[in-house]
Amino acid sequence: MASLKAMMRDNLVMSNICQRPTRALVSIAGIALGVLLVVLNTGLVHGIMSDRMRREQSLGAELLFWRSSSSNLSPSSVLSLHVRYAELLRQIPGVRLVSPVARYVQSGSSGIGIEQIDGIEFDTYAAISGLRIVEGRVFQNDDEVIVDELKAEKSQARVGSEIQVFGRKMKVVGIYRPESGARIKMSLQAMQRAQGAPDKCTFIMIKCEDPEQQLEVQQRINAALPHNTVQLTREIATGFERSIPGLAGFVNAVLALSTVVSTLVILLAMYTTITERTREIGILKSLGASKSYIIGVIEKEALIISSIGVVVGLVASVVAGWGIERSTILKLEFRWLWVVVATLIGLAAGLIGALYPAVRAANQDPVKALAYE
Amino acid sequence: MEPILKTENLTMTYRVGKVDVPALRGVNLSVAPGEFVAIMGPSGCGKSTLLHILGGLLKPTSGRVIVDGEDLTAVSDAARTEIRRRKIGFVFQRFNLFPTLTAEGNLRLAEHIHGNNRRQTDAETRREVLKLLRLENKMRHKPLELSGGEQQRVAIARAVINRPAIILADEPTGNLDSENSALVLQMLAELNKQFRQTIVMITHNPEAAAVTERIIEMRDGRIIES
After folding, report:
1. A14 touching B (Cβ < 8 Å)
2. pLDDT digits (tens, 9 = 90+) for A35-55
3. Are the Cβ atoms of A10 and B102 closer than 8 angstroms?
4. d(Cα A65, Cα A44) in Å, to the nearest integer?
5. Binary contact (A293, B88; C-beta < 8 A)
6. In the structure, what pLDDT confidence band is assigned to residue A127 with cuts at 50, 70 and 90?
């Protein structure tokens, strides 16, 4: 501790940081904000994607059937598939069960992200997915829904409460498990009526007689009902993130935004401090400090501030992630790649942001700098 | 004996707007190793400009400056900085210590810059300098915790700690009361005597100039008496 205090007193870089705590804290906050933006947003994106993917794969069906012009994985509300396809699919050899699903997407109830609602035929859906009611009962009327246990817990959607669907209040009449597909489910017919699309659905779940034969069944369906899409549920993982329009663009925008924010904060902070320290730059020059030495002093200061900012940003991301998971149904998934990217962005922003003020300081006229008041 | 500091027909002209203002008009100066010299003259006569050129902080309009055998006017800006680092120590009227650092930190910074990231001053020299300047018990203090005289002694210690060939002092007693002025001058004289340190000092004060071995009078950018 004593040696640390001595370093603060005797080291130019450390003493400068300690001398101007408010400026240092603002700079640290700027870098931390950039790191937080990257880690939290990518964590949310990957968490939500993984959660959706896991629930899609938990449908219990080996195959999903939908019109080639739409995708059940995209966040659009499209009821373009006629439910008569369910009967046609049921007649194909190797198919044991089918269940049409109408999917609707609305903005998340917590104000973040999106929320899906599935319109289902309860009996066939339950037979395929193993879904069962653990509290309350199955929906019977158009204004009734059932929710999974996580939704019930995080959104206070207990049996008897009301939630917003299609912009109007609907009554929660049952809670189910396990998680599969959308977290909110209602009757298929009710969804069709609400969407003005009678006899339509978004996709059809297919359970095979023998899961080992799913490839053969897929081929038979393609042959019998060409120009449609039949996807193996186990392959949902591949290309899932690519199926979300604009996802890559969103992530890139977050990266660019956080880089710009962090760089500007450091640039402004270091520019201000260099102006304040004009006379000190002159003293350094009178002592024989080279341009590279002066640039090094300023860059070291920026690097220390950035490093602290990165650590604060990472800790803040974990805390914010914990808070989001605790208070909403959103899932976060932090990936090391993005932690590394955020760290590099934070450090690089600090170094780049300090470079211009550092070069400007190094090129100051020493006599004018010494005369600076 | 070969001079440690020499100027040949040194001129310096500042451009102020569209007007050329001559500050030095052909200065020829020679300082022997170990000499303690005062430069006197009225304000605006070119003393500070001369000192800045001798220290490599300014480049003259024409003429030569030879410091310990090296021509400051014939080298690049980076090389001039290197010569300044190795051969010149500055003492300023306003002390110019780093306010965020302790006295020890200010000295270490000078050592750090001089040593290219290695602390080079030997412990014996350091002890002698601090003892001579009576700073042994002041090293943990920051400048604002020291009196003006103590701050100037720290500044002198910083200037000599790396044993430069020449100390250039710009009005070192200008901000001090008479008691502290006398003390600082006495210490500069002792440094000159004990370490054979060459010192060139600018001053307005005849009493300060009196402690030196030689007084150079300047007027209107020229040396009129040496």
Report:
1. no
2. 998 899 889 888 888 887 778
3. yes
4. 29
5. no
6. very high
Q: What is the pLDDT of residue A238?
A: 58
Burial letters for A17-52: b for 16+ Cβ neighbours within 10 Å, e otherwise?
Answer: bebbeebbeebbbbbbbbbbbbbbbbbbbbbbbbbb
Strands B214-219 and B36-40: parallel
Taking only the tens place, the pLDDT of each residue in A129-164 is: 999 999 999 999 999 999 999 888 887 888 999 998
Amino acid type, A277:
R
Tokens of B204: 């307005």
Angle at alpha carbon of residue A37, lines to A341 and A244, rounded to 5°? 85
- Does B34 contact A at CB distance below 8 Å? no
Q: Do B100 and A366 touch (CB under 8 A)?
A: no
Residue pair B190/B13 in contact by the 8 Å Cβ criterion: no
Q: How many CB atoms lie within 10 A of CB B29?
A: 20
The Cα B17–Cα A202 span in angstroms is 79
Q: Is A363 on the interface with B (CB under 8 A)?
A: no
- CA-to-CA dists, residue B164 to A102, B37, B50, B220, angstroms: 86, 16, 19, 30
| Chain A partners within 8 Å of B81 (Cβ) | 285, 288-291
- Identify whether the C-beta of residue B101 lies closer than 8 Å to the C-beta of residue B179: no
10 Å CB burial of residue A239 (0-12, 13-18, 19+) is exposed
> Would you list the DSSP string of A61-86?
-SEEEEETT--TTSSS----EETHHH
| Interchain contact B57–A (C-beta under 8 A) | yes
- Say what the ipTM of the complex is: 0.92
Q: What is the DSSP letter of A296?
A: H
Which DSSP string do the residues of B77-88 spell out, in sequence order? HHHHHHHHHHHE
Q: Taking Cα atoms as reference points, which of A285, A310, A304 lies closest to residue A354?
A: A304
Cα–Cα distance measured from residue A355 to residue A349, given in angstroms and rounded to the nearest whole number? 10
- Packed helices B178-195 and B148-160: angle between N→C axes, nearest 10 degrees: 20
What residue spans of A97-177 are helical by DSSP H? Answer: 122-129, 149-154
Place of tokens 């000499």: B35
**How far, in Å, CA of A342 to CA of A258, rounded?**
9
Residue of A nearest to B81 (CA): A288
